[in-house]
Design a protein that fits this description.
Layout: E1 5-9, E2 14-18, E3 24-28, E4 34-37, H1 39-50, E5 68-70, H2 73-77, E6 82-87, H3 92-107, E7 110-116, E8 123-127, E9 130-135, H4 139-147, E10 170-175, E11 178-184, H5 199-213
Parallel strand pairs: 3-7, 5-7, 6-7
Antiparallel strand pairs: 1-2, 3-4, 6-10, 8-9, 10-11
């Protein structure tokens, strides 16, 4: 097969073939439209997560073929249909979520758009009883907050229900340009993110992702 790259999707035995100049296409998770998967995105995402295994208590092992697309803020804002993963590689909750998320994606032949929010998110602190923004977020981050305002949960950690921020990890389902569903964090039974999800918890988390996808 020469320079061809094999993309295997776990459900059944569906295989996508693509050369370096002809990226693989899988189905978008919400409306089943084609989306291009670049091999370099899969390799970069796998390297980002696995390169931290020596310094993180949460070990991550991902397959070589991942239906992941690195997205910019503008691309998320203009996405008509799809699933977006927000977070960053060092976050232990994020590290717990990625394996079940991509198992779900491969089983459903779905693509996951990924946006690292570590450096673009605002920072808020409670100072002398008042909430203060100690670091501004990027314009694109604020635009994402505004566009999908209806779907975000209140950021109640600081005791003010009106504040909204994007937590890591958050999985956002977009349909017809609107946010229609989110899955935040992992599962209720996980109280320590340094302890990796067991098999039962992984299946529970996958069911959380699949709940909207199958309705």
């Amino acid at each position: 097969m020469g320079r061809n790259i094999i993309w295997t999707i776990c459900a059944g035995l569906t295989v996508f073939f693509a050369s370096c100049h002809d990226p693989a296409a899988v189905k978008n998770a919400v409306k089943n439209t084609d989306v291009v998967i670049h091999p370099k995105d899969a390799a970069n995402f796998k390297q980002e997560l696995e390169s931290l295994n020596d310094s993180s208590r949460v070990q991550v092992v991902l397959p070589d073929s991942l239906p992941v697309v690195y997205a910019t803020e503008d691309e998320v804002l203009n996405l008509e249909n799809g699933i977006v993963l927000f977070g960053w590689p060092r976050c232990p909750w994020f590290r717990n979520a990625v394996e079940p998320l991509f198992e779900f994606a491969q089983e459903e032949h779905a693509a996951i758009y990924y946006l690292d929010i570590h450096d673009i998110r605002d920072t808020k602190e409670l100072i002398e009883g008042s909430v203060s923004t100690t670091k501004e977020g990027s314009p694109g981050y604020y635009a994402i907050l505004e566009k999908f305002d209806a779907v975000w949960n209140p950021y109640t950690i600081l005791g003010v229900d009106s504040i909204k921020r994007i937590s890591s990890p958050t999985v956002l389902f977009i349909e017809k340009g609107k946010g229609v569903h989110i899955v935040v964090s992992t599962v209720v039974s996980q109280t320590d993110p340094a302890v990796k999800l067991d098999s039962t918890q992984r299946e529970e988390l996958k069911a959380r992702y699949r709940k909207y996808f199958t309705t």
